[in-house]
Amino acid sequence: MSDTPSRRPAPSDKLRFLADTVQAEAQHLATTDGRLFAQAMTTERAASLAVDIDLAERVDAFVARFGRLQDTVADKLLPALLDWLAEPVGPVIDNLNRAERLGWIASADTWLELRRVRNRMMAMFAMLKNWPMFSASPTTRCLCSLPQRR
């Protein structure tokens, strides 16, 4: 019997790369978030997306970066991290539930709801690019119902 404590192997290059990628994506999202929500997203502001190209690009960047970050974490980083810890790896929902139990995320249900909101926003924003009369559209209501930073 060895006196040496059991040690987990060093993180793989893939796991380190994924962690670095998620960190960079989170920083990019934080930058976009700061620029987009420096002003409250009012109905009027959301309605101006059809003519305010800078605002439209910020919304597009926010939605894309949020989606990319969420996908990278759920589809790549979580499974790699669970595998490294010798935890079972399964479908996304199982991995999210395990991440919640381990205290890595606050709520798997909230994560999934944010994914649904993100998917709706992506679909609505794509429609918006070809729909000039959208002031009462679901996109406008969705953007304006997002929690505002204080």
Walk me through the topology:
Layout (H helix, E strand, L loop, with lengths): L12 H24 L6 H5 L5 H32 L7 H10 L6 H21 L9 H8 L5
How big a fraction of the residues is strand? under 5%
Record field, number of beta strands: 0
> Spans of 5+ residues with little confidence (pLDDT < 50)?
1-5, 132-137
The end-to-end distance, rounded to whole angstroms, is 57 Å
Radius of gyration: 19 Å
Number of helices: 6
Biggest β-sheet strands, sense, barrel: none
Share of helical residues: 55-70%
**Helix and strand sequence:** HHHHHH
Q: Indicate the overall shape.
A: elongated
Keyword list:
150 residues, mainly alpha
Short summary of the structure?
This protein is an all-alpha fold and 150 residues long. It contains 6 helices and no strands.
